[in-house]
């Protein structure tokens, strides 16, 4: 399941590895939240990922339109108390041969009509698969998403820090800091995906990666992401670019409320 990273080549392959897994990782961020046009009066009930039993499936592709896998998310438990809602979501990652590679749980919630997400849930299962021989410590902000959006609106930033140690030796291997910045609502567009055709909001943001491996500072990386999402449903398509060139993209294949 996991791909061990040889110590002597880690500094050389780290950047390429992060590029490969960045889009699924970012997509997890984008789909876990639904900053929809839902008024505070409707509370949290309209968000698909806060409905018990809801599920959705994403298909991931490379820049040549070759499918690289799929991810299935299912809402397993919803806790409502004190005007707040918190959901436990189970994720399953399948490779291009449709073999289950790994799975895990994370939480999202709603408070005061706004969605929040612990950025630790950014740790996409496919990326986690690469670190099976390491002990991971992940810390992240809670990112808030307002319940009203409009063209030109600036959304809040978020930061996540991941530290890795070798399970056997306890040696510090790598520290990665990911910052999601410059999030801007650009406007509305109609977008067609396997799950259907939707009037969506287009949001653009940048992701900055800072890495330190075995005490050595690694070259930084910056990519741009464009997402399309619909009120109450979530992101239906996400595209990741570097230096203006498409790296990969993901689309919503099916959803069950």
Low-confidence stretches: 1-25, 32-43
CATH class: Mainly Beta
Largest sheet: 15 strands, antiparallel
Number of domains: 1
**Roughly what is the average pLDDT, rounded to an integer?**
78
Report the CATH topology name.
YmcC-like fold
Query: Which term fits the overall shape?
Result: globular
Characterise the protein shown here.
By secondary structure, the chain is mostly beta strands. It has a single domain, classed as Beta Barrel (YmcC-like fold), CATH 2.40.360. The chain is built from two helices and 15 strands. It has a 15-stranded antiparallel β-sheet that branches. It is globular. The two termini are 31 Å apart. Mean pLDDT is 78; it is low at 1-25 and 32-43.
What's the structural blueprint in terms of helices and strands?
Elements: H1 10-31, E1 55-62, E2 67-81, E3 84-94, E4 100-111, E5 114-118, H2 125-129, E6 134-140, E7 142-145, E8 154-155, E9 158-166, E10 172-193, E11 196-213, E12 216-217, E13 221-230, E14 234-242, E15 245-256
Concise overview:
Residues 51-252 form the DUF3108 domain. The chain has a single domain (7-256), classed as YmcC-like fold (Beta Barrel).
Keywords:
single chain, 257 residues, mainly beta, YmcC-like fold, 15-stranded antiparallel sheet, 2 helices
